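User: quick one, sequence for these tokens?
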């Protein structure tokens, strides 16, 4: 049993079991763990930065994919959404969305 087993063995989760298995086989250790966490953190922060700079999808586009022409009930729902967005702009960052129709 390695230090990894002692550190992570207190909570029984699938990740901890795989980590313990790999450590027992000599395929994982604390050095690899630190390196993995360090490089992964950098990759995740980079992905967050990229995602945050990407425009959000236009919320009205959700009505455009399934039908050639919208049924009346969906036209009504779309109009309700437009009115809701106008009524509560403080809750929806529409300035961060792709161009609205």
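Assistant:
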């Amino acid at each position: 049993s390695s230090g990894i087993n002692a550190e992570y063995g207190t909570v029984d989760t699938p990740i901890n079991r795989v980590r313990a298995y790999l450590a027992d086989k000599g395929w994982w250790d604390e050095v690899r763990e630190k390196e993995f966490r360090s490089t992964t953190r950098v990759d995740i922060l980079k992905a967050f930065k990229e995602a945050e700079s990407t425009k959000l999808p236009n919320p009205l586009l959700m009505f455009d994919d399934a039908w050639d022409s919208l049924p009346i009930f969906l036209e009504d729902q779309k109009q309700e959404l437009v009115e809701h967005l106008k009524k509560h702009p403080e809750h929806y960052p529409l300035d961060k969305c792709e161009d609205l129709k």
